[in-house]
UniProtKB/TrEMBL annotation:
Gene3D superfamilies: Acyl-CoA dehydrogenase/oxidase, N-terminal domain, Butyryl-CoA Dehydrogenase, subunit A, domain 2, Butyryl-CoA Dehydrogenase, subunit A, domain 3, Cytochrome b5-like heme/steroid binding domain
Record flagged with keyword 4Fe-4S: no
Database matches in PANTHER family: ACYL-COA DEHYDROGENASE FAMILY PROTEIN (AFU_ORTHOLOGUE AFUA_6G10880)-RELATED (PTHR48083:SF28), MEDIUM-CHAIN SPECIFIC ACYL-COA DEHYDROGENASE, MITOCHONDRIAL-RELATED (PTHR48083)
Name under which the protein is recorded: Acyl-CoA dehydrogenase
Cofactor(s) listed: FAD
Record carries keyword Flavoprotein: yes
Gene Ontology biological-process annotations: fatty acid beta-oxidation using acyl-CoA dehydrogenase
InterPro entries, per database record: Acyl-CoA_dehydrogenase, Acyl-CoA_DH_CS, Acyl-CoA_Oxase/DH_mid-dom, Acyl-CoA_Oxase/DH_mid-dom_sf, AcylCo_DH-like_C, AcylCo_DH/oxidase_C, AcylCoA_DH/ox_N_sf, AcylCoA_DH/oxidase_NM_dom_sf
Protein family membership: Belongs to the acyl-CoA dehydrogenase family.
Molecular function as annotated in GO: acyl-CoA dehydrogenase activity; flavin adenine dinucleotide binding
Length: 470
């Protein structure tokens, strides 16, 4: 249906409560009924410069562009100004690189904000869609498990873009636990177990989680207390696990236990003896885990070598977390760039202030250095096997720039909106609330950083004595 055409004169006649039109980016909106429900209040809409006028500038200084794309607001449009064209477009899928944008679009799901709020498991239809595109298998990185699979309909090579959802709890819910819990099953599980679990997980039917952390031990995995005792029927596992990503929704738990020989890692299926309960954390649901009988076929690796199984996971786990963190930092820079060019203060866009440009420059340089670090380490990981990675990259990955200390200038740019859960600053608020966790996920940043430096020290040549340059 052709869009109805109006002149600016016609629109200007509808300038009072009960009969209120505005022009935004050449589109005409009838706000007569919506006016009373407007989250920003009635009075702003009745101002002389807004009611019946072109309110494009006022609108984009206060709203996210996506507002007008939401069906409940899009339907307020009644026509367009004759002879004018819209100047503001949402970022088009395919505008930069077809594959890259399509991958982002696939991840930006409407389910995200609702589930982020209620903390429930993402809808099965989302897992089904991810399974069809082989995204679940892709998240495990390159390897034999990708053989014969067409990734994202063949449009893209694996890249880490998920965090751009700006819904971190939801993103974890989509398989954050699988990403870290499945590799020990893939690499150390017996063939039958491996086949069964991989099929179920890659088809989007089941979820895995990694259950290492306890109330007693986190980064110091050697201090775990959860105990696996040998019995005639199998392992009897007693203990609790805490802060387990996807613990509430997982069907399989990859569990680090203490045994008589030291440490052992077991794959525990949800069933009798497994209890999970929700503890509300700042941004996502977590779980507690208790008591169960486990068949010996579910032992991952050797009894006594559990620590190696757990440590073998750390490189790619840490890599994934760094990729996630840097991706969210880049999206925050994007938000700041958009806002700074959209927002007018003292009659000029924020970007006309040198101090704002300087903050943007500092943020971009920090974040893009981290991105370059990530691409460097990703390239190396893709060209090394697990053992080589452990020898040459473990320390390097530990000193990852995952920390939320980057991009702290965002507040100065967003002001009060940076602490507001809705509207323009929502992504900034979400980032601010969750970013400190980047420094503890997968091991405390300080502990890992120290490990990285110690690894480097171990490789320093011992034969040469340091001589100062004169
Ligand atoms: C089609 C027209 C409009 C729609 C659908 C709309 C919708 C909204 C929504 C959903 C919000 C909540 C914050 C957000 O999600 O971004 C909001 C806030 C606001 N709106 Fe509108 N709005 C419209 C037009 C306008 C116009 C023309 C003005 C003129 C000044 C305005 C002024 C405001 C203000 C001041 C806020 C509070 C924002 C803040 O403090 O961050 N709105 N609006």
């Amino acid at each position: 249906m052709a869009t109805k055409q109006f002149t600016t004169e016609e629109v200007s006649k509808h300038n009072k409560e009960g009969d209120l039109w505005v022009i935004i980016d050449s589109k005409v909106f009838d706000l007569s009924k919506f006016c009373g429900m407007h989250p920003g209040g009635v009075s702003v809409l009745l101002e002389e410069s807004v009611a019946g006028q072109d309110a494009t500038e006022a609108f984009f200084g206060l709203h996210r562009q996506e507002v007008l794309l939401k069906p409940q607001y899009a339907r307020l449009q009644i026509g367009a100004i004759a002879g004018e064209e819209p100047q503001i477009f949402p970022r088009a899928v395919g505008a930069l690189s077809m594959g890259h944008r399509a991958f982002q679009a696939a991840f930006r799901l409407p389910d995200a904000s609702a589930r982020e709020e209620d903390g429930k498991r993402p809808s099965q239809s989302v897992f089904d869609a991810m399974a069809r595109a082989n995204i679940i298998a892709m998240r495990l990185g390159p390897g034999p498990h990708l053989k014969g699979r067409v990734l994202m309909d063949g449009i893209v090579k694996p890249e880490e873009e998920g965090v751009r959802l700006n819904a971190r709890g939801y993103l974890d819910g989509l398989g954050g636990g699988t990403y870290i819990g499945l590799p020990p099953i893939m690499n150390f599980g017996q063939p039958a177990l491996r086949k069964k679990v991989l099929e179920e997980v890659f088809s989007g039917k089941k979820l895995v989680c990694l259950a290492i952390t306890e109330a007693f031990a986190g980064s110091d995995v050697a201090g775990l207390k959860c105990f696996a005792k040998r019995t005639e029927k199998g392992w009897l596992v007693t203990g609790t696990k805490k802060w387990i990503t996807n613990g509430m929704t997982a069907d399989y738990f990859t569990v680090g236990c203490r045994s008589e020989k030291g440490m052992v890692v077991l794959c525990i299926e949800r069933g009798p003896g497994v209890e999970t309960k929700q503890i509300k954390t700042s941004y996502s649901t977590t779980a507690a885990f208790q008591q169960v009988l486990v068949p010996y076929e579910n032992t991952l690796g050797e009894d006594g070598s559990g620590l190696q199984v757990i440590l073998s996971n750390f490189n790619h786990e840490r890599w994934g977390m760094t990729a996630g963190s840097i991706s969210s930092q880049r999206s925050i820079v994007e938000e700041c760039l958009k806002w700074a060019s959209q927002r007018k203060v003292f009659g000029k866009p924020l970007t006309s202030q040198a101090v704002i440009r300087s903050k943007l420059a500092a943020m971009i340089s920090r974040v893009e250095s981290a991105q370059a670090w990530l691409e460097n380490v990703t390239y190396q990981m893709c060209h090394m096997n697990y053992k080589q990675q452990a020898t040459h990259l473990a320390g390097f990955v530990c000193i990852s720039p995952a920390s939320g200390k980057l991009a702290t200038d965002r507040f100065q740019i967003f002001g009060g909106r940076g602490i507001t859960k809705s509207g323009m600053g929502s992504a900034i608020e979400q980032y601010h609330r969750t970013v400190p966790f980047d420094a503890v996920l997968g091991g405390a940043e300080d502990v890992l950083g120290d490990l990285g430096v110690r690894q480097a020290m171990r490789k320093m040549p011992r034969t040469r004595v340091y001589r100062p340059l004169v």
